[in-house]
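User: Could you check the structure of this?
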Amino acid sequence: WDGTGGLWMKHALVGKPAALFTSTSSMHGGQESTLLSMMLPLMHHGMIIVGLPYSEAELASTQTGGTPYGASHVAGLTSDLPISEAEKKLCMALGRR
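Assistant: Sure, the predicted structure tokens are below.
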């Protein structure tokens, strides 16, 4: 936030789309709370938050990551788990939005 003060003063990001991506070590590692807290500075900038709708089939079936608040990845305790196909699809879908 501190690094974007100049943009805030100029209203440079008002109306721009913003999407969120995160990674945690476990499924219960705080993905949703992390994404929600990341939204606050973007809202101060007047940005339009874009999430993932449940029309994305992988969102309802993923066993590894993904939330309507943004794309996510479960990296594992040693950060060595590869991104799953479902996570990749959700990231791509969010990027397109």
